[in-house]
Design goal:
Length: 129
């Protein structure tokens, strides 16, 4: 079983699993009809879903900076900045400087982020204004 939900696709899969347990409990006349294993699995799944929902809400509300947008996408893809550097074919130090605000992002960087990470170009442009 997963230890953490990292993206929306995993979240949707977990929610479908939870729904199956709910249907099984409903057919059995209530949650008391679930065996211990099912009860434990359902509990774990609901904790995972709850943690993901809290984290998603926190990220959605808090950070629309370039750093926040990119870091959120890196978390969803489960990659780090050095992997991103290889993916974009630029140095790790350049990425670090841009995301920390020490260097302005250039067109090449923004285009690469848009194409390789699938981040909306308008969102990126709004973040740097």
């Amino acid at each position: 079983m997963l230890d953490k939900i990292r993206n929306h696709e995993q979240y949707e899969a977990i929610m479908k699993m939870i729904e199956k347990y709910i249907q099984k409990a409903t057919k059995g006349g209530g949650f008391h009809s679930l065996d211990k294993k099912d009860e434990k699995d359902l509990h774990q799944l609901t904790l995972l879903a709850n943690d993901f929902e809290k984290q998603s809400l926190r990220q959605t509300v808090l950070d629309l900076s370039l750093n926040g947008i990119v870091q959120n996408r890196l978390n969803e893809m489960n990659i780090n900045q050095s992997t991103l550097a290889k993916l974009l074919n630029i140095t790790g130090s350049k990425i670090s400087k841009i995301l920390s605000g020490k260097q302005e992002p250039d067109v090449y960087f923004l285009k690469a982020i848009h194409e390789k990470l699938g981040i909306d170009g308008n969102l990126l442009l709004e973040a740097i204004q």
